[in-house]
Amino acid sequence: MKSYKRRQKEHDENVNKVVKRLKERNPSKDGLVCTARKPWIAVGMRNVDYKRARHFEVDLSAFRNILDIDKERMIAKVEPLVNMGQITRATVPMNLSLAVVAELDDLTVGGLINGYGIEGSSHLYGLFSDTVVAYEIILADGQVVRATKDNEYSDLFYAIPWSQGTLGLLISAEIKLIPIKEYMRLTYKPVKGTLKDIAQAYMDSFAPRDGDQDNPAKVPDFVEGMIYTPYEGVMMTGRYASKEEAKEKGNVINSVGWWFKPWFYQHAQTALKRGEFVEYIPTREYYHRHTRCLYWEGKLILPFADQWWFRFLLGWIMPPKVSLLKATQGDAIRNYYHEMHVIQDLLVPLYKVGDALEWVHREMEIYPLWLCPHRLFKLPVKTMVYPEPGFEYQLHQGDTPYAQMYTDIGVYYAPGPVFRGEVFDGAEAVRRLESWLIENHGFQPQYAVSELSEKNFWRMFDAGLYESCRKRYGAVGTFMSVYYKSKKGRKTEKEVQEAEQAHLEAAYAESD
From which residue to which does the signal peptide run (predicted)? Predict the structure, then answer.
């Protein structure tokens, strides 16, 4: 109920509190700076064990407001703890939206910027961080700066994505808005054949073979694919539609957000029997279509929760909060999720999606699989995540001279060998996955459990710009390095100190 002016005033007051808190830190006595957020609140599946070591806490819990929605500039200014559900509630009634809206309600702006965020519109706009036009950052010395792509902090602007909050404290972001309509006209198209056939059908659903990738008539607003077996999948393409169009005689409107409705991935699966069909979904409900069942993870959490009687009587309690699940799970469940269960995303060049699907089937045998394309832009500087060198000289399907088309393959579920009672070494499977990604210029989002060594981490990601900004803006000795923060397992204070010392050595950034 507060006005934007009041929210901005409170924001400035909270910034001053954080600056004051940072200046109270004694580098020789206090540990490295961490946010005061409890480890179990993070949505990612890796254990936030770095906070077990001595650290200096800075409370950012007050930064959870939308500060402004500027319809003229088409910019939303938001604080880092604003989540996707919160911002779509504010913008969709205005027929506006962020260019990229991550599917799950609880995902926050700060997590999507410092980590990884994608949606079915990413084949047009890139990852979530690609839609940001300015960051407000508190540096290690307490200085507050605004970084854009063309001001004096442009290096910081390009280094922030994927940095996991290890360059400074993000306190607000200005994010691109786009005009939208009330409904999504969604086409479900079943595909049958080999994994290579499914991969080609997926590419054809949004990437014209003639290379006309910027033609709105040929490229849909939203793209998503789900593979249910090694021989069956459903490709979905969406276009924004007006209320008048959706309500025309003969059109089917499906409000998928109601608690008693079938889970979205199961509803889409009906296309395998029904054949191709079209329906209209209210736009905000479409954005959050996977929230209620957490893609298909809800089936493992509550095996009966997809039954009609449960949905009708108790479907309103879904989904359980990821933070609640993490807060209440014991070591046995934690170990199960790390060893007998996979939650990983493979970011690979689009033309290699068929090879990646065959690799996942051979090594993990997990279904369903989620497919979502995204552009990886050619930027003025080399960031942690970057396209294949020279891709613009040999364009593949979906590529343009200014961006290489990648795809996210979401691998979320228990592997086939586990269901059959066979031996499955989850840690070893992830190590093989990471090696395959490095060999094929792929990337692994850092929210997932990783087995990467420090050397291999910097083979997967580029360290140049990140290291430069760490030193230029005083992050070394104040914030943890991104590898250390992402590292699996518990950390001791001695490990923290050793990691920071290694951060100053050239060998830390050893490349391929």
Answer: none
54 or 315: which leads in pLDDT: 315
Buried b (16+ CB within 10 A) or exposed e, 169-190: bbbbbbbbbbebbbbbbbbbbb
The count of other CB atoms within 10 Å of the CB of residue 231 is 13
Q: How far apart are CA 65 and CA 14, in angstroms?
A: 12
Which whole number is the average pLDDT over 27-35? 80
CA distance 155 to 183: 39
Residue 395 structure tokens = 């364009």
Question: Each residue of 396-446: pLDDT tens digit?
Answer: 999 999 999 999 999 988 888 888 888 888 888 999 999 999 999 999 998
Q: Tell me 377's DSSP state.
A: E
Beta-strand (E) ranges in 378-480?
A: 403-413
Residue 494 has φ and ψ, to the nearest 5°, of -65, -40
pTM: predicted TM-score of the whole model, two decimal places: 0.89
Contact 117, 128 (CB under 8 A): yes
At 512 the pLDDT is 42
Q: 502 pLDDT exceeds 70?
A: no
Peptide bond into 319 cis (omega under 30): yes
CA angle 96/101/103 to nearest 5° reads: 130
| Other Cβ atoms within 10 Å of 442 Cβ, number | 21
